[in-house]
TrEMBL record:
<keyword id="KW-0963">Cytoplasm</keyword>
<dbReference type="InterPro" id="IPR022896">
    <property type="entry name" value="TrioseP_Isoase_bac/euk"/>
</dbReference>
<dbReference type="GO" id="GO:0019563">
    <property type="term" value="P:glycerol catabolic process"/>
</dbReference>
<comment type="subunit">
    <text>Homodimer.</text>
</comment>
<protein>
    <recommendedName>
        <fullName>Triosephosphate isomerase</fullName>
        <ecNumber>5.3.1.1</ecNumber>
    </recommendedName>
</protein>
<comment type="pathway">
    <text>Carbohydrate biosynthesis; gluconeogenesis.</text>
</comment>
<dbReference type="GO" id="GO:0004807">
    <property type="term" value="F:triose-phosphate isomerase activity"/>
</dbReference>
<dbReference type="GO" id="GO:0006096">
    <property type="term" value="P:glycolytic process"/>
</dbReference>
<comment type="pathway">
    <text>Carbohydrate metabolism; erythritol degradation.</text>
</comment>
<comment type="similarity">
    <text>Belongs to the triosephosphate isomerase family.</text>
</comment>
<keyword id="KW-0312">Gluconeogenesis</keyword>
<feature type="active site" description="Electrophile">
    <location>
        <position position="94"/>
    </location>
</feature>
<keyword id="KW-0413">Isomerase</keyword>
<dbReference type="InterPro" id="IPR013785">
    <property type="entry name" value="Aldolase_TIM"/>
</dbReference>
<dbReference type="InterPro" id="IPR035990">
    <property type="entry name" value="TIM_sf"/>
</dbReference>
<comment type="function">
    <text>Involved in the gluconeogenesis. Catalyzes stereospecifically the conversion of dihydroxyacetone phosphate (DHAP) to D-glyceraldehyde-3-phosphate (G3P).</text>
</comment>
<feature type="binding site">
    <location>
        <begin position="232"/>
        <end position="233"/>
    </location>
    <ligand>
        <name>substrate</name>
    </ligand>
</feature>
Length: 248
């Protein structure tokens, strides 16, 4: 039985004080939940939030990771650095990184491998744009994004990785895939993994990310191949995020 995972992505929001207050509210309000909960925090606040969450089961995550181990890469943050400050997870290939900062399938695969090499769990984000969906290319795009990582890291890497399906057209737009639309792609992703290793496919967590909110979370999470959510804007509101956590 796969354990559910609810992961908040704070993106580039809030101040140091805001982040500490939010983390404390989550720690205080989480209660006795069976699923895993994590928050992906801006790099500069990771140490602060680690301190707030020290006595909490909430795990710490980063929003990106460098595609190199070390060296003259100004502005980058390595997997070793993330591990040292207590990150359990790191997002790789988020659609905003792909769209705004030129991340390619190949560079995302390198980031994925770097995270794995230092014991940080990579959360591989895959998904199609609205144009690609309207062209019926959803599965082709997901294949290309998955296959680049499988080629670089091997299918066995998904024993210690998470996949997040995020339809780009539903991120920050208020739109959301229907429960059935999301399930269709999640099922497809799991089958793609199963074609190579059915045991890993049964165990790998596949999250839905795309305007997850308290009022749609329960229906999404009831789908058989959706193992939780990668939550953006709603993760900045403690009450709403906790409602999402408790809706599993």
């Amino acid at each position: 039985m796969r354990r559910s995972l609810i992961m908040g992505n704070w993106k580039m929001n809030g101040s140091r004080e805001d982040g500490q207050k939010l983390a404390q509210a989550l720690a205080d309000g989480l209660g006795d939940v069976q699923q895993e909960v994590a928050v992906c925090v801006p790099f500069v606040y990771l140490s602060d939030i680690r301190g707030v969450l020290a006595a909490s089961p909430i795990a710490l995550g980063a929003q990106n990771v460098a595609d190199q181990a070390s060296g003259a890469y100004t502005g980058e943050v390595s997997a070793a650095m993330l591990s040292e400050v207590g990150c359990k997870y790191a997002l790789v290939g988020h659609s905003e990184r792909r769209s705004y900062y030129g991340d390619t399938n190949e560079s995302v695969a390198k980031r994925f491998c770097q995270a794995l090499s230092k014991g940080v769990v990579p959360v591989l984000c895959v998904g199609e744009t609205l144009e690609e969906r309207e062209q019926d290319r959803t599965f082709q795009v997901v294949d290309e994004q998955l296959d680049a990582v499988i080629a670089a890291a091997g299918i066995e890497a998904f024993e210690t990785a998470v996949i997040a399906y995020e339809p780009v057209w539903a991120i920050g737009t208020g739109k959301v895939a229907t429960d059935e639309q999301a399930q269709e792609v999640h099922k497809y992703i799991r089958q793609r993994i199963a074609d190579r290793n059915p045991v890993i496919a049964e165990k790998v967590q596949i999250l839905y990310g795309g305007s997850v909110k308290p009022d749609n979370a329960k229906g999404l999470f009831a789908m058989p191949d959706i193992d939780g959510g990668l939550v953006g804007g709603a993760s900045l509101d403690a009450k709403g995020f906790l409602q999402i956590c408790h809706s599993v």
